[in-house]
Amino acid sequence: MNIAITDGVELMPPAFAEGLNNWSSGNGTPGSDTYQGAANAAFVAADADFGGCLELQKTTSVQKLRNMTRTMLTPGCYLQITAKVKAISGALPTVRIAAWAGQSGGGHLGGVVETGPGTSLSTYGEVVEVSAIVGTGSRNGVDMPWGRAARFAHVGLDLIGPNGGVVRIEDIAVRDVTGVFLRDMISLVDVTDYGAIGDGSTDNTAAFEAADAAAAGRRVLVPAGEFYLGSTVSMNHEVQFEGTVRMPTSRMLLLTRNFDFPSYAAAFGDEELGFKKAFQALLNNADHESLDLCGRKVTLRGPVDMQAAVPNKTSYATRRVIRNGQLEAAANAAWDTDTVTAQATYSTSDARKLTNVANIANIPVGALVEGSGVGREIYVRDKNVGARELTLTAPLYDAVGTQQFTFRDFKYMLDFSGFSALSKFGMTEVEIQCAGRCSGIRLAPAGTVFSLDHCFISRPRNRGITSIGSGCQGILIDNCQFLSDEEPLNVSARQSIALNVNANDAKLRNNRATKFRHFALLGGQNQTVTGNHFFQGDTVADGSRTAGLILTSTNCASTVSDNYIDNCFVEWTNERDARPDFSSGFSFSALSITDNVFLSGDVARWFSYIVVKPYGSGHFLNGMTVSGNKFRSINGSIDRAERVDTSFADLDFSRSKSIFYEGNTYHNVSAAVANPLRIEHVQGSTAKTWTVDTDDALPFRGQARGVDSVIAIGPVEISGGADRHAMPHTKLRVGSRRDQVQLIWPEAVRGTVQVTVRVDK
């Protein structure tokens, strides 16, 4: 680079032969005294060493020589000022290059170095060359770094030391030496060329912006050092970091050209801080919709408060994605669960509140609530310290009154709970490597369509994904792996849960979950669970199993299809009803369980794959489809594929409606349940009343509430053998369990019939 060639800038000051009126004994500024006619200066036309030159006698303590014309300075350029000098007679002085710094408007730029290193003359007649470099940047080899405010110079030299000596000076030369500072074979713009100083304290905002503006398609280099940025900086060219930057949490570095995690890690010299600042930029229009981790592993020393990383945003609703990398929890105490015990009061009149909460200031939002009558996965959504009230994610089923509650604040690698709402945020091909030290992701209390696609949540200590409110509305979890840290433990010892959902419209598709206590607890309605494989067994013979999938809404309007449900079961409850006894509504309704593979091994005979657990009395089935499923028990058989858990109450089977339960296959399952249920009844002796037993083959051991058909297989005859063609009428809900029907004939007959019995109306 040479601006004299590329830009036609005149660098060389006039020769002494052109007149000493071009040279000042002062600063060179307009009005300065010149050497024209001065008694101590003369032009020598034919010096043996220099040809034409200036002969000058030193008469003052600092004998100045300055060019009266301006030598222009361009940011990013460096100029070398050179002079050859020899002593002629008298005292021997010291010589140094010097220049007067000018700024925009013509005024003096103070506070900068305006002289180069001095060279003492020691021998008469010896030619000595002195030089110095002036430029905007503070770089190694630059004698006079003036910063971006410098616009021009009056160049020359000084004679210092004893007076009386006479020297001769060859014409002073100025040349562009910027090329000395450029990197070989790469095109870089160095921020220090624009005034940046890597001392950790000088605000380099303007220098970074100037370097970026001048890059014109080239890369911007941040060399070794720590560069403080006091304001938000947007860099529109690729930036290469050899040094690091430091800036306040509230200020942003927007790398719009190379927006990726490695660039931010290099910029801040720390993986965790780089990740936070990259996320901050992602939510502040860094001209990218996603943050690419570029396959890198990011080690986190503690929970990342994702909202605190973006202090100017309390909510966000534009699609953003983090992709392609791994987040790993470092081993330290920052992940330890905080536990608080406090007395509080619960009333069904305000079913999502705890009131008169003692020690409320120490109870964190997002903590799991435990206590008598508290359902699973109930969290603190909000708190009002002044009113001593906690808002919960869901009602409690049997906690009326005052009691001691326990609040457990699990620590999450990525904690979004500081946002009031977060929508359309996703992660793709990212592994959350909890290493048994912490939990994975805590969602914001509100928002829609959080998504995970092709992600791993590996070995969470307590929870994989936790919703503490409605931030799970419309959540999409696709093609993900949830890998438990509790695989070596027996089922009864496990406590970790892969995920929970409180709101509606969740989609869990094509995921795999290994040996958690529960795969998913889903509140709300309209959930879709399809194509997943979740398994939870152990090696204990006749062992117990826990629910893989828990549905906590009675009218759930949900679909569970095409899953591989291995050594666990689907549990349908109303544990989030503040008044769990049925009073009105649809009760347990609108659930479809179709085309799944259910498998178990070494389980107790009472184990079942589908369990309905009412937490109050009076509930009934009101629209349920169970079809196309494959039920198989290995290493022993089980009694039934479905059952009612009557720990709190049974179902009211006199009200069952719209139960479609057929097309399933059963292997090593004693009761091959169906509805409608086709029974072949053989009446060997004549009788007027035939009692047809359903043999526990109605769904959930329900009642015989209807008969669709009675078809004779072969003749129906009286004792003498004569055929009878009369039809019987039926009597429903017969027997102690009301699961039998009676066929009542006009007379005593015998024969074989196929009866289609229904558990519903």
Word description of this protein:
With 761 residues, the chain is mainly beta. Helices cover 5% and strands 43% of the residues. The protein is built from 4 helices and 63 strands. The strands form 10 sheets. The chain has a 20-stranded parallel beta sheet that branches. Strands 24-33-36-39-42-45-48-51-54-57 form a 10-stranded parallel beta sheet, with no helix packed on it. Helix 3 (261-268) crosses helix 4 (271-282). The longest helix is centred in the middle third of the chain and has 12 residues, at 271-282. The radius of gyration is 43 Å and the shape is rod-shaped. The model has no long low-confidence stretch (mean pLDDT 96). InterPro entries: Pectin_lyas_fold, Pectin_lyase_fold/virulence, RHGA/B-epi-like_pectate_lyase. It comes from Phaeobacter inhibens. Pfam families: Pect-lyase_RHGA_epim.
Largest sheet: 20 strands, parallel
Poorly predicted runs? none
Strand content: 35-45%
Termini gap: 91 Å
Kindly report the oligomeric state of this protein. Answer: single chain
Mean pLDDT across residues: 96
Global geometry = rod-shaped
Radius of gyration: 43 Å
Q: What is the number of E strands?
A: 63
Enumerate how many helices there are, as a single number.
4
What would you call the structural class? Answer: mainly beta
Helicity range of the residues?
under 10%
